[in-house]
Amino acid sequence: MKSPEIEPLPPSEERAEHAASVKPPRLSRRMRLLGWWRRQMRSVDAKRRGTVIAQLREGSHPDFDYFLMVLLSSVIATLGLLIDSGATVIGAMLVAPLMTPILGLGLSSLTGDEQLLKDATTALLRGALVAVFTALVLTLINRPLPFAPLQQMPREVLSRTRPGPIDLAIALAGGAAAAFAWALPSVSPSLPGVAIATALMPPLCVVGIGLGMGNWQVAGGALLLFLTNAIAIAFASMTVFYILDFGQITLFQTRSLSDLPRTLRLSGFLVVLLFVPLAYLSARFVRQAAETSLIDKVAAEEVERIGGELAGIRIDRGGDVLHLALQIRTERPLRYEDSLMLQSRIADRLGQPVSIVIDQILYTKLDPLIPPTPTFTPTPGPSPTATNTPTPTNTPTPTNTPTPTNTPTPTNTPTPTATPTPSLGKVANTQWRGVRLRQSPNGPIIAVLPEGAPLQITNQIVISGGLVWVQVIDAEGRVGWMPLMYAATLTPTPTPTGSPTPVLSPTPTLTPTP
Fold it and tell me: Is 488 exposed, middle or buried (0-12, 13-18, 19+ CB in 10 A)?
């Protein structure tokens, strides 16, 4: 049998020219993007991935140390919220250990580590309950005490009750930054800043404060903010760990969305689902803010038309009627007709029924460039006593007989009554927060006096609302009331005693009779 002929290979020069003429296959856009990412991103080797997993397992374990830090951070955050101190709340964010269990949830959902998933879930749920319960107890303890007045919600509390899409974006960025900081040693120093940005402990404490004050709207808004932060951080950290090849399927092995891990797709769906109520709440908040701005503007203009100044306003939108509580500063007392006219004008401009309640503050305006006109008050003196005028008598004798003149009776000068003088004092024992000066005990606030402000303390003392109130006069001449516990007397001023003025009795004179 004849063997087939084998064609000889072309010379090596021809083969080289043919290879040079053939172009390599064009890479897809996705592969070029992944290649660029690999060149820019530092790789995380297997040893570093094992270290990160071990650290997250240790930090997500619900042991005594973990719950102790949760308790301490919740105490710091709650007290900082009650006294409206932003710096104290930031300190609580740095101490709180809640970020680690959420990152553990993201990593365990990606890698399928059941033990890490169980520990992280237990630590997060129990830690959240400890924080809420601690805030609830501290609020109930502080409500009857005068150290942290809770008649109104502090600003730090209210700022965490209206979550929106911006909060969702902040949580996503914070979760991604936290995952990168854990995975890459060079980025680890940024972890404290990430803890401040994501703010997990303050919303939980606001939930407890809302429950302690019976305000379900505050508690519900803060709970929604915490859930938003937790879900967004878990999704962002899971995405970063997936990009850094922590999962069973790497980024380069993914060809379509169906190749993504199921837990990653589920968490992404939850994030999208959260966006709907957040967008609705944000739109409603913007609408209410616009309405509130309009109400403030209309009320201020109408109060100015009747000769007053709007010092404060409280809005209640319950029912079909808009209820407004106005605090007005005026130089003259308002009449009933003024309140009717003010209510009618505000209702006409807003286009809806309005009910107003006026809290009036009387004040006197002083201008240093225009001194007040002095009023002269006559000084009372002794009352004159009528004296008998001697009648001359004709005597037939040539000798002049002197007739004595009646001596005037001396007038008694009244002794002045001693008037108590206000003693000098100052504001004290307020822990440098100052004290509110009120128009009446538990009445409207007319000023806030700082620690150490000089006072004149009168002897007017009443008991109202379980507190002893004293009437004082501040350095600007405002007369108001404040709790007696915050007024410290400096040096008592002695009360002047009136001295009687001696009256000289006129010397009797002899009038010669002609």
Answer: middle
Cα separation, 169 vs 274, in Å, equals 11
**H/E segment holding residue 438:** strand 435-438
131, with CB counted inside 10 A (0-12, 13-18, 19+), is: buried
Residues in contact with 333: Cβ distance below 8 Å, sequence separation at least 6, in sequence order: 360, 362
> CA 5 to CA 2: how far, in whole Å?
9
Q: Taking a C-beta distance cutoff of 8 angstroms, is the pair 260, 303 a contact?
A: no
Is the CB of residue 61 less than 8 Å from the CB of residue 167?
A: no
pTM of the complete model? 0.57
* pLDDT (tens digit per residue) in 318-365: 778 888 888 888 888 888 888 888 888 998 888 888 888 888 888 777
Rounded Cα distance between 221 and 88, Å, is 22
CB of 455 closer than 8 Å to CB of 426: yes
Structure tokens of 512? 């010669």
User: Two tokens at 256?
Assistant: 């379509």
> Is-contact 176 236, C-beta < 8 A?
yes
Structural domains of the chain in order of their starting residue, each with its CATH number: 38-253 (1.20.1080), 423-489 (2.30.30.40)
Quote the percentage of the chain above a pLDDT of 70: 69
| Tokens describing residue 333 | 């007392």
The angle that helices 165-183 and 262-305 make with each other, rounded to 10 degrees, is 140
List beta partners, residue 362. 330
